[in-house]
Amino acid sequence: MGLSLLPIISLGEIKHLDNEHLLQNKVIFVIIGVAAAISMMLIDYRRLEKYGWMFYGIGVLILLMTSSFANGMIVGQLIFEIGSVRIKSIMALPFLFLAWAPFFNNSKLNIWQLGGLFLFPLYLFLRTPNIPVAFSYTVIVFVMLWWSKIGRKKVIFITVGYACLALIGSSLSWSLLHEYQKERILGFLNPEEYANDAGFLYLRLKELTSSVGWLGTFVKQNSIPVAHTDFVFASLTNYYGYLFAIVLVAILALFIVRMVVISYKIIDDFGKLLVVGGIALYAVPFVYNISMTLGLLPIAGVSLPFISYGLMPTVMNAFIMGVVLSVYRRKDLVLCSKNA
């Protein structure tokens, strides 16, 4: 997690917070993240299976608070504020992740029940509206679906059917979009035509990433918005260069590789579901953030795991690592119990 301090050290202050306050906050976030990882690692993951419905209820409650009872808004997304505490829809994601592992490991739930359990939170995510988190939620559920107890033919049918419905829904929803939402999409597809509006940021990112050398400029770019969060990869690439960017991507990708290797060593169905779900929960924002910085995907409010400034990007990914470690360190105990 030490790499997460680099944006603050190199990119300087942000809005009303100076380096000292940013550094203090980030250190606190890292400490909380380490505590979350250690706590989850020490918990016997097998105990989590019986609390699936509780985790689902907590996740849905968070989504109801942010979609139906919201009393604030940040960057176009609804939030629920209690004093100085801000509840965001992304906070539901870890709980829903912990809920779907027991659901998919429960042979008593049929396809229609699982479909309803999936669609209700998705609807609430879209109401907030938080499209990136809704996308992450969808990917997590479908990745875990392929490792569930549901038959392979049914899984293929469900996946293809949902993909077709998603494509049809996306086509039909174009007429329902607001003008600014259409411009954002068109700005991604043709940034030159919308150079002064929705396409400006795409062109700016392309200019910055194409003009950087191997060793960087070591100059802060004030023209990059949210340089510490959503565009932290672009900011660090501009500052330290391509060589650093490659090393950073390699380090973050190693987490995925390591978790994939662990997944092949787990024989317990519930444990394997937790690991593959954790891989998806970590990999989606990682791949999306890098891709949108390179102009391969539309710009969205997606943080780079461990690197972006903020409590949730740090704690949630540390939480994932803790869950995976909990499964891994008990793999031999599960094997012994099965052989007994």
Q: What can you tell me about this protein's structure?
A:
The longest helix has 25 residues, at 269-293. Helix 4 (92-104) runs parallel beside helix 6 (131-145) and helix 5 runs antiparallel to helix 6 (131-145). This protein folds into two domains: 1-42 and 212-340, no CATH class; 48-176, no CATH class. The model has no long low-confidence stretch (mean pLDDT 85). The chain has 340 residues and is mainly alpha-helical. Strands 1-2-3 form a three-stranded antiparallel beta sheet. It has helices at 6-11, 19-42, 52-67, 92-104, 111-127, 131-145, 152-172, 179-189, 200-211, 232-240, 242-265, 269-293, 311-328, 331-339; strands spanning 72-74, 77-82, 85-87.
Helix run count: 14
Structural class: mainly alpha
Total beta strands = 3
Q: Give the distance, in angstroms, between the N- and C-terminal Cα atoms.
A: 40 Å
Please trace the helix and strand order, writing H or E for each element. Answer: HHHEEEHHHHHHHHHHH
Quaternary structure: single chain
**Cross-sheet strand order for the largest sheet:** 1-2-3
Main pleated-sheet profile: 3 strands, antiparallel
Stretches where pLDDT is under 50 for at least 5 consecutive residues are none
Broad shape? globular
The count of domains is: 2
Average pLDDT works out at 85
Please give the radius of gyration in angstroms. Answer: 21 Å
Strand content: under 5%
Q: Percent range for helical residues?
A: 55-70%
Quick recap:
The protein is mainly α and 340 residues long. The chain has helices at residues 6-11, 19-42, 52-67, 92-104, 111-127, 131-145, 152-172, 179-189, 200-211, 232-240, 242-265, 269-293, 311-328, 331-339, and strands at residues 72-74, 77-82, 85-87. It is globular.
